[in-house]
Design brief:
Number of helices: 5
Mean pLDDT: 91
Largest sheet: 8 strands, mixed
CATH class: Alpha Beta
CATH architecture: 3-Layer(aba) Sandwich
CATH topology: Rossmann fold
Structural class: alpha+beta
Helix content: 25-40%
CATH superfamily: P-loop containing nucleotide triphosphate hydrolases
Number of domains: 1
Order of helices and strands: EEHEEEEEHEHEEHH
Number of strands: 10
Strand content: 25-35%
Low-confidence stretches: none
Length: 168
């Protein structure tokens, strides 16, 4: 499922039933845009990869329990984007990382599409968590990372400075 969240192309992946469609619907309701449901057509554009929906499927999303929905009819044309450059992959329903450092740096990795390496974040699905807010925060954080502002590094540097100034 490919969306634009704050104009950042994000691919939601996960097993069937992991909540991708429900999350996409929530993101669209919050003003973000759907590019393609499960069938995404990819093409390379230099070092980037661009995704779009196959024309017959554009604007439609299948949601368990609701069936196929026409997002243009439900939310208007602003709910859809014709294409997006993939800049982040979010895996839903992943098992929480047991690595201690995951608390500081997150559960991050890399996902490849057409040979292009894209940052990937694994988010476990937990009852009561607001996944839409987590995805929005992840997208904003990705923009900051692309600009060189990596929060765990900044946090560690701040702690080092604090320890150096308070050492005897």
């Amino acid at each position: 499922m490919l969306l634009t969240v704050d104009r950042l192309g994000v691919l939601l992946i996960g097993k069937s039933g992991s909540g991708k469609s429900e999350l996409a619907l929530e993101l669209v309701a919050r003003g973000h845009r759907l590019v393609a449901d499960d069938a995404v057509e990819w093409r390379r554009a230099g070092a980037a990869v661009i995704g779009r929906a196959p024309p017959p499927l554009a604007g439609f999303i299948e949601v368990r329990g609701l069936g196929v929905l026409d997002l243009r009819a439900l939310f208007g044309r602003r709910a859809l984007a014709p294409a997006a450059r993939l800049r982040l992959v979010i895996e839903l329903g992943a098992r929480a990382s047991s690595r201690p450092e995951a608390r500081l740096v997150g559960d991050r990795g890399v996902y490849q599409v057409l040979g292009v390496r894209v940052p990937k974040i694994s988010l476990p699905r937990r009852l009561g968590h607001n996944s839409a807010v987590l995805v929005e925060a992840a997208c904003r954080d990705q923009r900051l990372r692309e600009a060189g502002r990596i929060a765990p590094q900044r946090f560690a540097a701040r702690l080092r400075r604090r320890l150096q100034t308070s050492s005897p």
